[in-house]
Each structure stands twice: as structure tokens, then as C-alpha cells.
Amino acid sequence: MIRKKKILGTLAFALASTLGVEMAFAWTPNGSVTTIARVIVWQDDITDVVIETAAGDTCNFNSNATNGKNLLSTVLAYYLSGKTIRLYCYDATTTVNGYVSHRLHRISQN
Q: What string of DSSP letters covers the chain?
């Protein structure tokens, strides 16, 4: 019985992947190509960083988290160079110092 459930679960995952269905999360923005229009940091505390895209989406991350400084450097490099990126943020919103935004999941060069 356990083997049958495992096989059914694997088949369901394969079918969902083939159809392009996100099984666990919705992304905002959904990875569409954009550029970073603004990077918002605060003078006395750069722990929280908010990114605004050219399309008007806002995402945030904690620069003190694991690899947070590397992520901040990457974001600033994309911002200054004007290169296009693909940005994925969690669908749920949070408020960071007055900015309603989504927690950053992934950023990649287009």
C-alpha cells in the first residue's frame, strides 16, 4: 500500500510539472523579465532591504540573513548596471518600514 501511494504521488508530481503547475507557491512577480528601478535601504539599519522593479512590484529581504550581504551586493550590481533580471517573490505580503512588499525567493539574470 505504501509503495502504491508513493507511485501515485510521483505520478501526480510529474503530471503537475509537465503542465507547468506550481504545486506549493505562487510567485509575485512570477519571473517575468524586468529591471530594478529602486533599492531602498535605511541609513542606520540596512537589515531590511526593499527592491522595486520597473513594473512596480516590490520585494524585500534581510541583509543580515545567511548570504544576505552577497545578495545585497548582487542586487546593487543589477540596479547600477540596468541589466534585466527575473525576480521571484513569495505571494504573501509583509510590511517593511511602511513598504508593502513580498519576501524575495530568487533572483536571476535574464
A: -HHHHHHHHHHHHHHHHHHT--SS--EEEEEEEE-EEEEE--SS--SEEEEEETTS-EEEEETTSTTHHHHHHHHHHHHHHT--EEEEEEEEEEEETTEEEEEEEEEEE-
